[in-house]
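Thread: Modeling a multi-component assembly for a lab meeting

Hi all, long-time lurker, first post. My supervisor asked me to bring a structural picture of a complex we are working on to next week's group meeting, and I have zero experience with this. I have the sequence lines for every component (915 residues in total). Could someone generate the structure of the whole assembly? Inputs are pasted exactly as I received them:
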Amino acid sequence: MKKYFGLIGLFLLASCSAKADKQSAPEPKPLARVDFPTYEKRVLPNGLTVYALEYHEQPVVSLRLMITAGADNDPANLPGVAAFTADLLNKGTKTRTATQIAEAIDQVGGSVEASGDMESTVISASVLTDSVGLAFELMTDVLMNPAFAPAELARAQQQSLSNLTANMEDPDFIADAVFDRVIYGPHPYGHLTSGTLTSIPKMKREDLVQFHDKYYAPNISALAIVGDLSTADAFKLAEQWFGSWTKKDVPRPQNPEVPKMEGRRIVVIDKPDAVQTEIRVGHTTVPRKDPDYFNVLVASYVLGGTGSGRLSQTLRVERGLTYGAYASIQPRKRPGSFYSTTDTRTEKTAEALNLVLGELQKLRDSEVPPQELQNAKSYLIGSFPLSIEVPNDLATRLTTVFLYDLGDDYLKTYRDKLADVTAGDVLRAARDKISADNTAVVLVGKADDFKKQLEGLGKVEIIPIKKVDLDSPNLTR
Amino acid sequence: MRLVASVLMLLLLQVAPSKPKPVEYKETRLPNGLTVITHEDHSTPVINAQIWYHVGSKDEKPGKTGFAHLFEHLMFKGSAHIKPEEHDKIITNAGGVSNAYTQDDVTVYWETFPANYLEKILWMEADRMATLDVSEENFKSEREVVKEERLTRIENPPYGDLLELLYDNAYDVHPYKHITIGSMADLNAATIQDVREFYKTYYVPDNATVVLAGDFKADQALDEVKKYFGDIPRGQTPIVRSTAKEPPHDKERRISHPKAVPLPAYVAGYYIPADGDPDSYPLTIASNILSAGRSSRIYKSLVYDKQLAIQADASGNFTEDPNLLFAILIMNRGASIAEGEKALNAELMRLTTEPVSDMELEKAKIKMRGEYAFGRESVQEKAQSLGHAAVIHRDTATVNKEYELFMKVTKEDIMRVAKTYFRPENRTVLVVTPQATK
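Re: Modeling a multi-component assembly
Sure thing. I ran the full set together rather than chain by chain. Output:
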């Protein structure tokens, strides 16, 4: 009998093994090292840094001009000037009206956009290769000759006020805005780049003209030209169109120090018709160029950089409390922020908050286990090829290196630096730069239904959503 | 001489505009009915893989709304050789990203990853197509996640419920009446038995399309697809598609929705034909003329000149069955819906009474040319275009052929479709007026 069984057993084994390669995962062969595509960098006589990178996958060219001055240069009493200055660029020049600019670029199926961010102003253009000359022409015209016409300013103010009025009742938006204000205090990093309900109506043409005169300078700017264009042509066009942009002395912002959270401050924005609570937890952390940046970055990925992070595992997978729970760093030249974000049904507010605080504490209590550390690092390192796929991404990576002054070898070396991060580094950085106790907590939701649950978690301030005032130190009118 | 040369250059530029590159592809049907489409792109060592299942929220039965999407979440809850949540983990650890989405007509699973992971990804996707294994406990906890998703997307944001209301009123018999996320009551009523039946019926190779775009050799990739998907059996349960047709409506439907929103909003949904219908091409060009770019008619009139709205656009939601073209307005502070609606309708009516100018028609076509180039840069965008052509149009060649149909649209076509579809009785209107919080 045994014999027979043996034979049958063998037969079964044989038939299984034909499929065995389907049961165990085929392991990937190593990928040859992927490098950032070759590009050339030149500095024009007026100080403008120009990057040119050829990329021929589609007949398109991306231009990205970054001026390293943004809302961090807004006058203290007038947040929003950098954004309005940028916003009005393509709304008319000395020789073209807003409509003519729109017609010209729509006529070739491209785009020319400008926006003011926290630490930079970006003008970008995307066109089909046959219109690259027009892109340079329009871009430099809006850059150097903006009209800042009063009628356009009035229009932009009205639009912006309406937008903000709508946003001020959007729980997601208000949670972010209040959070930044709580952790950065009076520092410009804490104000809305778009301006506030108080500052927007006060904006005058002179404010914009002044900002443009002072900060729009080639010597603090970089231009990335990426796409279906030879490097030689790219530099020729850059010199032809940007060569006449005049160099100037640019004052650097005199901002107060970025504050550090002392203790836990819980701000509840009461929205009585909410069915969910938006949750933000965090504080200021390291500057982008700090030696600990990568250690804190790895910590943020362990905590919640992806859907496989601890926050998602704990809140979403194990308990079904939320659709998403993530952690990230907002990098800045001065200390940026380290924050966790999630949302949950009203009655689970405190449970979710406590879980987030618990995960923060865990990062400080013990070393990240080897496999988990490896996972976070391999994501950060492995995602490099995905981040250099299309012209816009490539242009953005180049100008980001310029913005934070990361050095010409950064794109070559940062993966090695990440690979060197140890569990000890992460623990040390977490104890130094991450905290569950000295942290801001912002909750936007139906306060009556969860405020009792917050007892014992820290000092709680409750502000009705209609009374939120982002210009006031205590956030309320 | 110089002058002549530059004039010639100009002429040359005009006669030889950059044309979008066609997306080259190979298509195969395996004996078990699985469609496989590959596109090689060696510009970066990454690959995007998509598995399109031809099932969406329009295939849901009454009382089961939201199920196709709930099911999509469960596909991450483990199969014979992959533990729950491991699917995403394997991909993120490789530096890749993965996700899925459900629409009215389809459910699509996708991942973008470093090129050396192709075989492993195929093994994983085949494993969950063949052997999904969801526990009762994981089913229940993921249902809570989906309910949270409904709160996050629909119930909590000020304008989150607009489309749900519009569709509920715009359709009587066609399943597009309910939006993909479904109702809380139906989500609560779903059972693990429903999961098993749905899986058996729809998640079969003959109802699926594998699309790969990126840095691989097509022949080798196809061999690997055959290796892992080739012996998954065909579906045994016949798929019965809804044949419901929405009857033409003979008068305007109008709903007023008082809500605690900061600014009034207006949405008009005009019934339009399905994706790929001959009329869909002039309608798309018409919507470009109406609202693509700052020089478009609606933007120019309502946002720029009259400053009535902060957002104003018109765009068609083209799907497998006839759907709606939305004209949406979010009003500027102090502007009334009545003024906005009047100005908007004036632009729609103008298309029915006077032909568009040559310049505007040309501009809308060039815009389309731009969309073909800018919308097909990444491997994900390319795979997306191929999947859409194969599954929704049932003709992969349309991925490139449609371009010519857009280019052939005439002024007369635009006036004809405007007259056909932009009629008051052909629309459902939703007016949202701000009301104080309770």
